[in-house]
Amino acid sequence: MADVKSYSSRPVLTVNLTSLAANYKYLAAMAAPAKIGASVKADAYGLGAVVVGRALYGAGCRIFFVAHAGEGKILRQAIGAKASIYVLSGNTPQDTAIFFGSKLKPVINSLTQARDWVKACKPVKHAPRTALHFDTGINRLGIPPEEAEIFASEKPLLEALDIDLVMSHLACSGEAGHPLNTKQLARFKKVAGQMPMVPLSLANTGGVYLGSKYHFKLVRPGIGLYGGKVTDNPDAEKVKPVVELHAPVLQIKTVKAGETLGYNATFTAENDMKVAIVSAGYADGLPVNLSGSDKRIVTSARLGKSRVSVVGRVSMDYTILDITDYDGFVELGAKAVFFGEDLEKQSAHASMLNYEVMTHLGARCRKIYVNE
Ligand SMILES: *Cc1c(COP(=O)(O)O)cnc(C)c1O
């Protein structure tokens, strides 16, 4: 009896740690002499904050940003005591003990957070230092201009906060020509000038590409580390793809002309077809908008050296690929590959941000970390 090739039905997310480290070094070189901190919020954009955090630490990263204290606690356990971990959402009453226990630095986004933090620190011997985050025009989280004046005038409060970073966040950093960039830059310089002399930080990934005026002492990219491209000139972004979704082929069948494929019969076979049913669906983060219908065939996965199209609706666990014209034999267990260098193209097809696609990929897939 011939050997049966071993494979599992479970889709795999491959995360290439060598490319991750290369992207870290590439962005670090671009930002130098500014330092680089890594944004690893949302479980490192879905890729796994523990392994990704350790890999970045290994590449030399000593400053990290997460969104929530709970994320910070997990990261602290993974990377040890030496690195700085800032929590972007700032201190919230329920999480204060986690900040102290895991030595997390709150990013202070309001006067309320500032006063709450100072009060909470009173009985504590070695409270973590903090960052101040000024809103310079994104009008999302951050200290608004009217509160900035109060901060500037309340010296005892500033002193008690023990600030070691002043930051702001750009709304349009991917659009080099957007007027809000220069506006935010000017506002940031102005407000930072009223604060104690501490390192400044403005740039996310897009801000790194905006040039040295935007780098200050620290840049804090996220998506670029994970191979995501953010600007209107993506060819100039020399980051390497980090993430691929591998969907194993579970079944191959022929479909007669006139038959329909998948839920709601959105695709009709014009001629006899050969299709492969692969094991990955929207529960694995494959966007439903990558579905192929009679009106629209939008995407292609990579199968071996070829590109194949999605036909019919992407369902929860399975996706149908058209292999009618596939040149070669498709083995059960063979992997159809989504994303990788196609992340931006496939995200655009799905009318989604690459950020959004990436953060959805890690939910169910088995993650395999690759070093090569
Ligand atoms: C998410 C985030 C970053 C990183 O942004 P990218 O666009 O992924 O580089 C940096 N700073 C703040 C405040 C953020 O919320």
Broad structural category = alpha/beta
Number of strands: 19
Beta-strand content bin:
15-25%
Number of discrete helical segments: 12
Mean pLDDT: 96
End-to-end gap? 35 Å
Please state the CA-atom Rg, rounded to the nearest Å.
24 Å
Architecture of the largest domain, according to CATH? Alpha-Beta Barrel
Low-confidence stretches: none
* Helical residue percent band: 25-40%
Could you say which small molecules are bound to this protein? Answer: pyridoxal-5'-phosphate
Strand order of the largest sheet: 3-4-5-6-7-8-9
**Relevant CATH superfamily of the largest domain:** Alanine racemase
Number of domains: 2
CATH class of the largest domain: Alpha Beta
Q: In CATH terms, what is the fold-level topology of the largest domain?
A: TIM Barrel
Shape: elongated
What does the main sheet amount to?
A: 7 strands, parallel
Description:
This protein is of the alpha/beta class and 372 residues long. The chain has two domains: 196 residues, Alpha-Beta Barrel (TIM Barrel); 130 residues, Lyase, Ornithine Decarboxylase, Chain A, domain 1. 29% of the residues lie in helices and 22% in strands. It has twelve helices and 19 strands. The protein has a seven-stranded parallel sheet with strand order 3-4-5-6-7-8-9. A six-stranded antiparallel barrel has the order 11-14-17-16-15-18. Strands 2-10 form a two-stranded parallel sheet. Helix 1 crosses helix 3 and helix 3 crosses helix 4. 47% of the residues are buried. The mean pLDDT is 96. The structure holds pyridoxal-5'-phosphate.
